[in-house]
Amino acid sequence: MNDTSSVDLSTIVNDTSSPDLSTIMNDTSSPDLSTIMNDTSSVDLSTIVNDTSSPDLSTIMNDTSSTDLSTIMNDTSSPDLSTIMNDTSSPDLSTIMNDTSSPDLSTIMNDTSSVDLSTIVNDTSSPDLSTIVNDTSSPDLSTILNDTSSADLSTIMNDTSSVDLSTIMNDTSSPDLSTIMNDTSSADLSTIMNDTSSPDLSTIMNDTSSADLSTIMNDTSSTDLSTIMNDTSSPDLSTIMNDTSSPDLSTIMNDTSSPDLSTIMNDTSSVDLSTIVNDTSSPDLSTIMNDTSSADLSTIMNDTSSPDLSTIVNDTSSPDLSTIMNDTSSPDLSTIMNDTSSPDLSTIMNDTSSPDLSTIMNDTSSVDLSTIVNDTSSPDLSTIMNDTSSADLSTIVNDTSSPDLSTIMNDTSSPDLSTIMNDTSSVDLSTIVNDTSSPDLSTIVNDTSSPDLSTILNDTSSGALQGEEKENTMFGLFYIQKASSSFSTYEECFIHCISGFTE
């Protein structure tokens, strides 16, 4: 922090050449919040909250037929956290972190035999995005969402034949966390960060000999984003979602002629993960990161020849959001969730033929993390931050050749939020919330035919739900989450589900 060669914060904050916040906030040409909130043509919050036809929270919370939280928390028959964490029978983290046999990052990054990004982006022989998006021969989302033959969530949650959570939580045979964290034989973080023998980040970023991002983005021989987004000859999103001629998701998921997930995961003829991770013939990450032939960031950010955001956002030839959101021909969520004909999650979770997680984690033949963390040939952080040859933040922030935020926000040619929110032709939230044809939350929570949480947590007689059973649970919840959420891609939904199982 005491390095006087870098630009300090006051210089950046006091630079008067950039627009200040008051100019942006006091611009009266854009609609203010009160105009949006006081618009009486839209459904207000009180109408939704005061709707007495739906069950209120007190009814759900005061239902005495369900087990309360104190009973669950005060049950002394279940093992406490210290017993689980102090189990010294599992392998510790130091064994994994101190393994010096894995490849480093520099070998991977410095491999000059790989194809660079510009060759891939500028390859005109591959189909562009508009060709893919406008292909009308693929199935649309509406057929998938409108299939009324899939099973509802209550059937899955109330299935009493599935494995309960207590089997997983009460398994005392797993390794504890204290053994892993208290191992003093591994290298500490300061040794890794202060190693001055490797090249720093500025050398990599300031190398002007390689093709920079601006050259790739400004290549006029490739199709730009505005051409793809403004192409009026292709079908818009509502046409794709409402196309009833394509197959739906339930047909794909309920097709019993294809192998299920447990058959695929239990196939012992495929290569396992340890073989892939322990393959020492591939380049390491340090080789890739230390390649000094790449372009720096300032050249990319200060290139004024690329189109700004306002041009793309204000293009009025593309369909707006209200057209897509107000299309009443698509199915609602209650129809999808109440379909009782699809297979339930318990069948997937109760498959005991898959390998458990402890077998995978305790395999001592795999490479540990220490080779990567303890590699002393990587650069330290101080060398990277104190390199005065790279462009500082004020140069990038104060570049007046790029459009400021007020120009983008005050452009009155684009539709404002009130127009979208006050469109009375769309279905309002109260209609969805007050739909009495779907089961309410109290019915699901108070269903006494399924085991309650205390029974699950305090069951000391079962063993852990392991490896593939946990993975099956994750994939089952992944399909349910994707069908009933606003994730735009399967990748976003998959990452969300993965994070819930790894925390």
Automatic annotation (TrEMBL):
Organism listed in the record: Cyclopterus lumpus
Top-level division of the source organism's lineage: Eukaryota
Descriptive protein name: Uncharacterized protein
